[in-house]
Write a structure and sequence with these properties.
GO biological process, one term: transsulfuration
Catalytic activity: O-succinyl-L-homoserine + hydrogen sulfide = L-homocysteine + succinate
Shape: globular
Mean pLDDT: 96
Number of strands: 12
Largest sheet: 7 strands, mixed
Radius of gyration: 21 Å
Order of helices and strands: HHHEHEHEHEHEHHEEHHHEHEHEEHEH
CATH superfamily of the largest domain: Type I PLP-dependent aspartate aminotransferase-like (Major domain)
Bound molecules: pyridoxal-5'-phosphate
Helix content: 40-55%
Keywords: Amino-acid biosynthesis, Methionine biosynthesis, Pyridoxal phosphate, Transferase
Number of helices: 16
Number of domains: 2
Pfam families: Cys_Met_Meta_PP (PF01053)
Function: Catalyzes the formation of L-homocysteine from O-succinyl-L-homoserine (OSHS) and hydrogen sulfide.
Strand content: 5-15%
Low-confidence stretches: none
CATH architecture of the largest domain: 3-Layer(aba) Sandwich
Length: 395
């Protein structure tokens, strides 16, 4: 494959392995194991296997490897390992390199389950964790220590769409020798090049934009070969979080249209943000592509577009938000994101219900806040649906 191919070309072709049949579409190798031609080969493969040699599907599989190689090429990473879900990826990426006594600094505005891992699980195993306001570089600097092992952050953050200066945080973290792990789900590999910005490890929930059609769970971890094929692979091999070959095949189909979908969804998100900003039913409109976004300058520097997600704060708290949600006709009420169908979520009563009111307030998750994942529907239809629901919310 060619070094100078663009992301869209890589998303269609990279990683493909054709069998002797020359199939056009990637084959699903729905097999748990592999047969060795002789005992010597089996012995050798257990010592070390080449890129096209497999032992057991928990360790690797040809269809899964195609997905891993295609994602690595898209991200500009040396290697990738696919997992059963995004959370299997986050869990393994952190636990494979931490031990009791280590220190971690993480941004506070994290996906709910990521917050559970850093705030509840890691301390249970003796890892000390400091949570900071990710947008405040002075807070990162104050929290980092000579013994900090790892930094974990999410930008764009969920659900308030804050942007963290990845290059600046990476410089601070690397100065104390800490690894930088970035959950890049909201920004997508199309719009944010986290490895180029300084991340050591990048994580995706492939359930979101990569599949993009709401079918399968999946996750992936990308980074340097010595990390991915070293401690990460060893951890997943023995703890069982591997991706199924069928799901890898669905993800490969998703990748073929990833660039097209993300660009269309971001263009519509931008269009809607501009159409609704200042509406009398709204307290605020949060979209990283708007000049009014608190980190508009950083967002423009770090990402190619404002992304596919919007956050709207309705007037009238929960009642106002519920009136808006229930009046939508096209946009579906659910909690996935990055899907071809537009989706609305009320974080305070669903994804972030577990948090106390104080914790939600600290994260900027008010009762009137809704999160909108913009899909592939016609932009004019969506705009009309959302403006209509805003009118209903006023009543
Ligand atoms: C969805 C999501 C995850 C978890 O992924 P699953 O595939 O649901 O396990 C992690 N981080 C972010 C930012 C997400 O949106």
């Amino acid at each position: 494959m060619s070094e100078d191919w663009s992301l869209r070309t890589r998303s269609v072709h990279e990683g493909t392995r054709r069998s002797h049949y020359g199939e056009m579409s990637e084959a699903i190798f729905l097999t748990q194991g592999f047969v060795y031609p002789d005992a010597e080969t089996a012995e050798r493969r257990f010592i070390s296997s080449g890129p096209d040699e497999f032992v057991y599907a928990r360790y690797g599989n040809p269809t899964v490897r195609m997905f891993e190689d295609r994602m690595a090429s898209i991200e500009g990473a040396e290697a990738a390992f696919a997992t059963a879900s995004g959370m299997a990826a986050v869990h393994a990426a952190l636990f494979c390199q931490l031990a009791a006594g280590d220190h971690v600094v993480a941004s506070r505005a994290l996906f709910g389950s990521c917050l559970y891992i850093v705030e509840t699980l890691l301390p249970r195993f003796g890892v000390e964790v400091d949570l900071v306001d990710g947008t405040d570089l002075a807070a990162w600097e104050a929290a980092l220590r000579p013994d900090t092992k790892l930094v974990f952050l999410e930008s764009i953050s969920n659900p308030t769409l804050e942007i963290i200066d990845i290059a600046a945080v990476a410089r601070l973290a690397h100065a104390v020798g800490a690894q930088v792990v970035v959950d890049n789900v909201f920004a997508t590999p199309v719009f944010q090049r986290s490895i180029e910005l300084g991340a050591d490890v990048v994580i995706y929930s492939a359930t979101k934009h990569v599949d993009g059609q709401g079918r399968c769970l999946g996750g992936i971890v990308l980074g340097r070969r010595d990390f991915v094929r070293g401690p990460f692979e060893t951890f997943v091999k023995h703890t069982g979080g591997a991706m199924s070959p069928f799901n890898a095949w669905v993800m490969l189909k998703g990748l073929e249209t990833l660039d097209l979908r993300c660009r269309a969804q971001a263009a519509t998100a931008d269009d809607i943000a501009r159409a609704v900003e200042g509406h009398p039913a709204l307290e605020r409109t949060v979209y990283p592509g708007l000049a009014s976004h608190p980190q508009a300058e950083l967002s423009a520097r770090q990402m190619e577009t404002g992304g596919t997600m919007l956050a709207l704060e309705l007037k009238g708290g929960k009642a106002g938000a519920f009136r808006f949600i229930d009046a939508l006709k096209i946009v579906l009420i659910s909690n996935n994101l990055g899907d071809s169908r537009s989706i609305v979520t009320h974080p305070a009563t669903t994804t972030h219900q577990r948090l106390s009111a104080d914790q939600r307030a600290a994260l900027g998750i008010g009762d009137g806040l809704i999160r909108l994942s913009v899909g592939l529907e016609d932009s004019r239809d969506l705009r009309a649906d959302i403006l209509g629901a805003l009118e209903s919310a006023l009543k």
